[in-house]
């Protein structure tokens, strides 16, 4: 069995086409190349939105779903940095909400005390 083991679709954001277009192209190329299917290796995501089994049956080729992870330092550092920044933004948002609540409570209490 011959498979293209490294194919990205639009879910990886570095390919303009989806799995359906790959399947159609593969069917067109089968007369020139001995290929039985492909493995979608999307970046950092295991795609569950698409029924690849049904697509495989529709085109008569094997379509496997996988995920591509890069374990070299630069890539992992970018992921960690992104997660760190997201965590920091969430913490700042929570802090802003807490400060807002404290200010509102203080204003309500101040107003009530001034009325007494």
Structure, explained:
Residues 74-81 have low confidence and may be disordered. Helices cover 53% and strands 16% of the residues. The protein has three helices and three strands; from the N terminus they run E-H-E-H-E-H. The chain has two domains: 3-68; 71-116. Strand 1 (3-7), helix 1 and strand 2 (37-43) form a beta-alpha-beta unit. The termini are far apart. Helix 1 (19-29) runs parallel beside helix 2 (52-59). The protein has a three-stranded parallel beta sheet with strand order 1-2-3. With 116 residues, the protein is α/β, with parallel strands linked by helices.
Structural class, by secondary structure, is alpha/beta
CA radius of gyration is 26 Å
The biggest beta sheet reads: 3 strands, parallel
Indicate how many domains the architecture comprises.
2
Mean pLDDT: 77
Cα shape:
rod-shaped
For the largest beta sheet, what order do the strands appear in spatially?
Answer: 1-2-3
Q: Which percent range fits the helix content?
A: 40-55%
The percent range for strand residues is: 15-25%
| N-to-C order of helices and strands | EHEHEH
Distance N terminus to C terminus? 86 Å
Unreliable parts: 74-81
How many runs of DSSP E, i.e. beta strands? 3
Number of helices in the DSSP assignment:
3
Write the layout of secondary structure elements.
Layout: E1 3-7, H1 19-29, E2 37-43, H2 52-59, E3 62-68, H3 73-115
Parallel strand pairs: 1-2, 2-3
């Amino acid at each position: 069995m011959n498979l293209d083991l490294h194919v990205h679709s639009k879910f990886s954001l570095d390919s303009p086409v989806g799995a359906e277009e790959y399947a159609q192209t593969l069917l067109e190329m089968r007369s020139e190349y001995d290929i039985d299917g492909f493995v979608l290796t999307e970046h950092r995501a295991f795609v569950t939105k698409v029924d690849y089994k049904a697509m495989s049956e529709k085109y008569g080729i094997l379509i496997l779903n996988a995920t591509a992870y890069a374990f070299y330092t630069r890539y992992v550092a970018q992921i960690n940095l992104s997660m760190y920044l997201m965590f920091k933004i969430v913490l700042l948002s929570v802090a802003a909400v807490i400060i807002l609540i404290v200010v509102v409570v203080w204003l309500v209490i101040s107003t009530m005390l001034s009325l007494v």
